[in-house]
Description:
This protein is α+β, with helices and mostly antiparallel strands. Helices cover 32% and strands 25% of the residues. It contains 6 helices and 12 strands. The protein has helices at 28-37, 40-47, 52-73, 135-142, 145-152, 156-177; strands spanning 2-3, 16-23, 82-84, 90-92, 101-108, 111-118, 122-128, 189-190, 200-202, 213-216, 224-231, 239-244. Helix 1 packs across helix 3. The chain is globular, with a radius of gyration of 18 Å. Mean pLDDT is 92; it is low at 3-7.
Amino acid sequence: MEAMTNSFAPDLLPDEVHVWQTELDRTVVEVHDFFSLLSDNEKARADRYRFPKDRCRFISGRGQLRRLLAHYTEMSPEIIRFVVGSKGKPALASERNPLALEFNLSHSGNLALYAFSRSRPVGIDVEALHPERDIEKIADEFYTPREAASIKELPEPERLLAFFTCWTRKEAYLKAHGEGLGFGLDRFEVSPLPNAATILLATPFDPAETLRWKFLPLKVPTGFAAACAVRAEDDRSITLRQFTLP
């Protein structure tokens, strides 16, 4: 991964996806600085959090998103304006988005990921591996029968990562679409195997969907699973660049 410096603002090319990794737990001074960048609506949302840690993580996540968007749009972070789709996916207001910039974000615990592309819907998801969950029961309830069976067939030490690999791939695809979990995790099928060559296996609601999307291999810290889906129906190769915020 590349680390960003104050003078480093990478160009985002049409056939690239940039993914940024950062931590949400920041110093009091940093959180104060991030808070100053937020809109009135975001500040109100922050104040509704019951626990200080959750409030600070929200502020940090939104503040760092604004700073990243400022790099790509060459705008001041505090004037960036968002619109929200009918299913809750945020986007840049069109009058302030000359590059047709698409973005998505996800966080789990202290880790946050941000994905950026140009004119290509993109979705990202990260999840901490929680061994205390009854993953086989959840897979039976929410996954397709083949997905659930694939996880159960693995040696027990490999099942936890496979379960969350499956979950993050499904979430990333739905988020790229702008759909929520209400669409149904069992309406399409992905491979739960971390090193699978083909990720999106079946989309019965529209068979051509399997040809429209690519899943990019992400590097994340041990103890997490993550996935990034991007629309690429023109069959052009997509280059992933990953960065870390210090």
